[in-house]
Amino acid sequence: MTHSEAIDRAAAYVLGALERTEEAAVREHLATCAEPHAEFEALSGVVPALLELADLELVEPPAALGGRIMAAAAADLAANPRAGAVTPSAAASRPTPSAAWPTPSIPTAPSAPTAFPSAAGRAARSERNRTGRFDWALRIAAVIAIVAVGAWGLSLQGQLQGAHDQLEAARHFDTAIASVIGAAGQPDAKTVILKPAEGATANGIAAIASDGSVVLAMRDLTPTSGSQVYEAWVIVGEAAPVPVGGFSVDSDRTAGFTTRPAEAPPGAVIALSLEPSEGSTVPVGPIVSTGIALAPASQNG
Amino acid sequence: MNESQHGLRGRTASSVDDSDQAALALVTAGQLDALQELYDRYKTMAYSIALRITADGALAEDVVQEAFLGIWRNAGRYVEGRGSVKTWMLAIVHHRAVDAVRRRRPTTELPEREAVPPPALQLPDIWSDVAAGLDREEIAAAMATLSDVQREAIELAYWGGLTQQEIAERTGTPLGTVKSRVRLGLLSLRRALVGEGDGLADGLAGDGGT
Asked: Do B121 and A44 touch (CB under 8 A)?
């Protein structure tokens, strides 16, 4: 496109009134032409004012839209982790990446609960303050992003067990996987890849069956002791985490478990926490693994 | 109080923009709460623009979602000093909304959905601050400087999502006439907003023609 052709299209360009292909040609021209483009500057400056001049009727979007957008962004972040994907308070004290994966600490607001300790040592804390519901989901998303880097490498640690134990665990896990595959074949089923949270090794796969129950196959879980249970949670958008059932784990570090049915649309976060005892209504123990529910279609883009 | 174009309004707007720029930088680093902050600040504006252009609530929601995901993924493309963050974000919403209505019209050729980066309408928009501070009378006065046909052409383009060729067909007007209506209309608005002393607009308007 010549300079004069671009100038001729300036007014339509700034209003978005060109075919997109023509618009791209103008943009290309602007990016490469050294001539002045006063016409573009003069005209484009007016365009934002059109919003004010239009007497635009202001309409609030439906409340659910924000949750959908944030879930989509969290899923995007999980799929494409970014270097700086931690919240601001952690950024200042972010340690340099260590051997296996970067280990930035998950920020804990002063009033935050121990729902999200970033290291095993913090698990002992017993505050039960609630953090903002959405904040909670954000932290899960941040953890997903952080662990995505080296998640599967850690499963190697599980192989340090004795060979016999491994075989038993593998059989147990196989059975659990078969259940997951069964559930994943149901109409409208969703699948979830569960990755370990920071400081944890638990990983696995799950399917959300037609009735909303989550069928889990987990491995590399730390065995439970005493009254401890692993509790599964479903988090939808900005809503509070919903507990859907818990289970204990023995020395084979493996679990197959089907939760109570819950509303878990695509984009919902499935999380597993290690609770001090059964019946938690809010996660108080450390999160050990998280994943995002994906509809089969969404996996194809 | 004689509030000039670069008076209080400008300062207020730029402190908002400082905060927007800080949030956008955090979005670039992958921080979801910064995206939430920008969404909360501009969701109503974004949805209202999308709704006006698409006239379809469900489609407008899709547009806003696509736009904010575009912002999420492409925050690093924002160029400081070439328009406010607000203008950049709302231009993306506008662009997506126009894509959505054009996609509904089978005759229009559109590139792949994800192929379009945020629009590069990033040229200085120092007058948006001025416009933001106008009262209704001033707005009405600015709009009154346009002829009916100029206003119609600009509205069909900006709010109707029509290309200039489509406007020519729709209104039964030669393309060259549509081009000059749009151009002279924008220059007229510019003069009304920044005042008569703006030599650039006067000079540009002079070589217009119909």
From this structure: yes
Terminus-to-terminus CA distance in chain A, angstroms?
Answer: 34
Is the pTM higher than 0.80? The answer reads no
Task: Tell whether A79 is within 8 A of chain B (Cβ).
Answer: no
Residues B1-133, CATH architecture? Orthogonal Bundle (1.10)
In degrees rounded to 5, what are phi and psi of residue A194?
-100, 120
- Architecture label for domain A3-53: Orthogonal Bundle (1.10)
Contacting A residues, span 112-141, partner chain B, CB-CB under 8 Å? 134-135, 138, 141
Beta carbons of B68 and A73 less than 8 angstroms apart = yes
Work out the average pLDDT over A245-255.
89
Q: How far is CA A120 from CA A29, A98, A150, in A?
A: 56, 17, 18
Residue carrying structure tokens 């007497």: A55
| Annotated domain spans of chain B | 1-133, 134-210
pLDDT single digits (tens) B75-117: 888 877 667 888 889 989 999 999 999 888 765 555 444 444 4
How many angstroms separate the CA atoms of A20 and A39, rounded?
20
For A26-76, the pLDDT digits (tens) are 888 888 888 888 888 788 878 877 887 777 889 999 999 998 899 888 888
pLDDT value of residue A86: 46
Mutation for testing the A interface, residue in B27, B33, B86 having most A CBs under 10 Å: B33
Neighbours of A180 (CB within 10 A): 23
Backbone φ, ψ for residue B107 (5° rounding):
-75, -15
Confidence of residue B132 (pLDDT cuts 50, 70, 90): low
Dihedral, CA of residue B145, residue B146, residue B147 and residue B148, to nearest 10: -130
Instruction: Provide the chain B residues 53-92 that lie in CB contact (below 8 A) with chain A.
Output: 57, 60-61, 64-65, 68-69, 72-73, 83-84, 86-87, 90-91
ipTM: 0.81
pLDDT at A162: 54
Integer Cα distance of A94 and A85 in angstroms: 11
User: What angle, rounded to 10 degrees, do the helices at B175-194 and B136-144 form?
Assistant: 140
Q: Is A81 on the interface with B (CB under 8 A)?
A: yes
* Cβ(A76)–Cβ(B160) below 8 Å: no
Domain ranges for chain A: 3-53, 64-300
Fold of B134-210: Arc Repressor Mutant, subunit A (1.10.10)
Residue A130 has pLDDT above 80, yes or no: no
